[in-house]
């Protein structure tokens, strides 16, 4: 590595160093070692070959000096050719070792990336819904990308770099001192002129780089928000395109200006270092030539010293930034472990068991629940706040008890914010109760495996979310082995087979971001088809038709009736006319069940349900949607 390249690497690592550096921590180092343990053999060979490469790098200048001496002494051709052959052999060996080291580096680095990413991904999947409602998605994705890559650099770059540079430095210094301690002292005296500017300029460029990153992040955020289907719609309806373009141009212009500044600072620095390295070589050759003419040094020794100078400066410059690299890698590891240390509030017990197949009841037994505070489910760095909120908002459900027998339909009604959706989220263990129990088939859901809960209970949410994938991929999310005839049967029962069959790509049609290529009613029927495909014994419908027009709602209601036929059903109703045939209606207010009974009984009672019903149908117009 040349002196200029070494300084350039130093600048690069300083530019990309983290600000939140922290001291060495033995527990952190032990955890890193545990992650690297499966790669012990790779690490050993990696370090050994790096040391061998460093030794060969010092051998070449010595042989080059011997060639010069042999030529000046007028030696026979054979010794010169042998020396040249040795230099060629070293070059070939260096190339082979470089390829091998690079292969080991790739295997080690990419293997660690794979292990870290899959471990973090699997852990994040186990986090409760409360974690995702608070966390910024971009910050979480950054942990799986930037921080994971930063962590693996500790092995693929820092480990090898520090080891090989230390060996190269020690060998080069020892050889140079043995050849000429005077020239060696001169070289060391010029070192601060070479290293200090690199560190100072690196810090300056780091500040510019962080500013550029901030502006790039702002641009990315604007593009992500404005280019999504909902964002683009909002801008077209209420936004000001000219102002949006002007704001984007302002941010992009700032990034351009920073880019120009960065390029000029780098070029000035690089040119200055080139000049410094040339002057250093001139001084070495000057002093070496003086000693050679006086007969104190051989000409070959002077050439060797000049070549060894790069073997001395390059490692020293690289090692000057080694602390920055090591600390940056440790910070990245720490940020990854920070995610892994966040324990899921909802987890599967080691003794969890499966439910037997067949009809299953759903029971809430004196359930008390409050949403967890931020400090229990999130991280300040993921929310981009200084400190997490530790305040407890109190309980939102108070002693909720009811039971839905197999084949029955029970409806939940009440004001917005009364706790209906919270009740629905407790059944599939999106959250766990604070007191009481939720039972599925007579068993506390906390004693059941996640797989058996997913197989037994299906849920259709209000937003009808779909992934930006094909219809087939969205339908088979819970039934990966389903055949095409099963998919078409589910679509037929969801009243959607005709629409999908008319599409050019059929089941392989990409639905678009969040399913925006389809109408709200079509998206909802796709989610119902997905539920029918899994064939659960218990169905929860969380206001599945609240955002639909009457025509779409009628089609969805037919699909919902198919989904609930013969199943244990819990329905959160938006339109009260749709649940008139429910076996029981529960009126929820302020987290409590204040009334229960059939549609006729509750109307006759003249209580809260009757008030809600009169308010919804004050116009006296009949509801066009058939009851379930």
Characterization of the model:
By secondary structure, this protein is an alpha/beta fold. The protein has 2 domains: 3-340, Up-down Bundle (ABC transporter transmembrane region fold), CATH 1.20.1560; 407-430 and 448-616, Rossmann fold, CATH 3.40.50. Helices cover 63% and strands 9% of the residues. The chain has 23 helices and 10 strands. The strands form 2 sheets. The protein has a 6-stranded mixed sheet with strand order 6-7-8-3-9-10, sandwiched between helices. A 4-stranded antiparallel sheet has the order 2-1-4-5, covered by helices on one side. It starts with a helix and ends in a 12-residue tail after the last helix.
Question: Could you give a quick summary of the protein structure above?
Answer:
By secondary structure, this protein is α/β, with parallel strands linked by helices. The chain has 23 helices and ten strands. The protein is elongated, with a radius of gyration of 35 Å.
How are the SSEs placed, and which strands pair?
Blueprint: H1 3-15, H2 26-36, H3 40-72, H4 77-125, H5 129-134, H6 137-179, H7 181-189, H8 191-227, H9 229-238, H10 241-293, H11 299-320, H12 322-340, E1 362-369, H13 374-377, H14 380-383, E2 397-404, E3 409-414, H15 420-426, E4 435-440, E5 443-444, H16 450-456, E6 457-460, H17 471-475, H18 484-493, H19 497-502, H20 520-534, E7 538-542, H21 550-564, E8 568-572, E9 584-589, E10 592-597, H22 599-605, H23 608-616
Parallel strand pairs: 3-8, 3-9, 6-7, 7-8
Antiparallel strand pairs: 1-2, 1-4, 4-5, 9-10
Helix pairs in contact: 1-8, 1-10, 1-11, 3-4, 3-6, 3-11, 4-6, 6-7, 6-11, 6-12, 8-9, 8-10, 8-11, 10-11, 18-20, 20-21, 22-23
